[in-house]
Amino acid sequence: MDTYILAIESSCDDTSAAVLKNTKILANVIANQDVHKFYGGVVPELASRAHQQNIIPVIHRALDIAKINKNQLNAVAFTNGPGLLGSLLVGASFAKSFSMALNIPLIEVNHMHAHILAHFIDDPQQPKKPEFPFLCLTVSGGHTQIMLINDYFDMKVIGQTIDDAAGEAFDKTAKIMGLPYPGGPLIDKWAKEGNPHAIKFPHPNIPGLDFSFSGLKTSVLYFLRDQLKNNPDYIEQNKADLCASVQHTIIEILMKKLRKAAKETGINHVAIAGGVSANSGLRNAMVQEKEKSGWDVYIPKFEYSTDNAAMIAITGYFKYLNKDFANQQLTPFTRYSE
To answer: Which residues are CB-contacts of 65 (< 8 A; sequence separation ≥ 6)?
Structure first.
């Protein structure tokens, strides 16, 4: 018998709903929030209000595209954290009500675990799935982690940032340069036209498999301060080289630790996930490492890299098979929890 799951993702500023049939995505709808561009970053109160406006139309549209009736659903899955509390509460409240009204199981999903399990969505363009155990570099605006994945429900953080996340480093650097929000994709765009070795930025000396990106942000700030004293147009005249150099530095920091993790664990099945996995430089670095080190590399489809409900749906499906259901008293969490 087929299993149909409705999934809801509302951890930050994107309202998303997906419908899944077994391991195949029938619909994946995302409503973005442009209002945050005016403030240079996500404003939590505005995000939660926009989720309230978007959630019903988005779910209605997803069911429409999937061509199924709500009464055919076997369960509803939702992001329970980590994320912005107000945003999470909107998705959680709707999921709880929907579950109760239809008398179907409620499934809570860890947002970061879902990014990883997006690799298991049935897609003809990417038929190859990671083999357990594998390593996954999960990189986003709020998290940077190296995780050891033993199976769908056994995931262990073996390295993580001690301050800023990689995505945060991209966005903060872009802000220093005067680029609009979100700055990460713009740095990626300009980096393609620049020389990644034009400017040498320092790498942090952090033991083990942990990361640090706050020092890079400070280095860029001081470097530009000094350059602008002599040439007020320095950023505009050197935008491509600046972006290429910053991106190269961030990716080198990430890849150095990922190589170390692969060497220490002896695992050569390596994946990336999260919003920053959409970065073309990181994707290219993974392909190059595959050729150099013989890794089996897994790169998610672009549409499953950024926040989306499809990844919540596939995670919900595996939890449904395991009868891992939530109760109505469950409350969202804002920080990562294994």
So the answer is: 19, 26, 27, 29
Structure tokens at 180: 């609009």
**If residue 320 lies in a helix (H) or strand (E), which one and from where to where?**
helix 309-321
Q: How far apart are CA 269 and CA 129, in angstroms?
A: 10
**41 token code pair:** 């970053």
Tens of pLDDT along 113-161? 999 999 999 998 888 999 999 999 999 988 999 999 999 999 999 999 9
Residues β-bridged to residue 147:
136, 157
Give, for 24, the enclosing helix (H) or strand (E): strand 24-31
Q: Can you tell me the mean pLDDT for 14-40? A: 89
CATH assignment of 134-300, among 1.10.10.10, 3.10.129.10, 3.30.420.40, 3.40.1360.10 = 3.30.420.40
User: Which residues, in sequence order, are bridge partners of residue 29?
Assistant: 17
SS3 136: strand
